[in-house]
Amino acid sequence: MKVFICCFTLLLLFLFPPLFAIEGAGVAFKVSLSGKIYKRFSFLLEEDVRPRDDFREAGWFLSTGEINYRILPNLRAGAGYMSLVRYKASEEVRNRYYLYASGSHRFGAFKIALRERFQSTYKKGCLHPTNYLRSMLTLSYRIASSGFEPFVYIEPFNNTGYKGKMRADKIRYSTGCDYRMNPKNNLQLYYRYHTFNVYDPVNYRHAIGLTYSHRF
């Protein structure tokens, strides 16, 4: 794992050298596996590795398992569980449960997508969970006669329990590109920027990430 993280970081340093001179910058690597279970039911398994800011070893491991249901061709709902584990820090274990619904509509080469997600995160040793409503709006453009589809999105993290009112503790902005290698395999390279109103030990203000997805 350490060797892989070092190789991946060197690749990103080569592609985006100015980013890592910025304080609060990081990288992420994710592997996503999905497939059909029965009729409209599908599963999703993901492993997200986020190295420490010194890039010498992993910082966080985010492991996800999800079941989703296709209501319509462009409308889906699902539920999942995520384990967030800080490397060599057992007190930082978090358990997250979430529900979501997502829909999309394509007009020509453009596609607009909206996802509403409610998540509840339980940190080890804490009495009460942290609950967020996350609304992600994505606009993408499919480049004709290629497998490339660049995108941009915005995603506020609305804390549902802040003094009895909803407040955006964090807003995520991202831009990147999906590359469809074939019907079963996809690569995504992205840049993320966060604005924080609270301390967040898991996410960096600036981040570059690479995701590999395979569908069975």
Features:
216 residues; 11 strands; globular; mainly beta; 70% strand; 11-stranded mixed barrel; disordered N terminus; 1 helix
Structural class: mainly beta
Secondary structure tally: strands: 11
Poorly predicted tracts of residues: 1-10
Give the SSE order as H and E letters. Answer: HEEEEEEEEEEE
The overall average pLDDT, rounded, is 87
| Multimeric status of the protein | single chain
Describe the main β-sheet briefly: 11 strands, mixed, barrel
Terminal CA distance: 25 Å
Helix content: under 10%
Please describe the topology of this protein:
Blueprint: H1 2-15, E1 25-38, E2 41-51, E3 58-72, E4 75-86, E5 89-107, E6 110-123, E7 130-141, E8 148-162, E9 165-182, E10 185-196, E11 206-215
Parallel strand pairs: 1-11
Antiparallel strand pairs: 1-2, 2-3, 3-4, 4-5, 5-6, 6-7, 7-8, 8-9, 9-10, 10-11
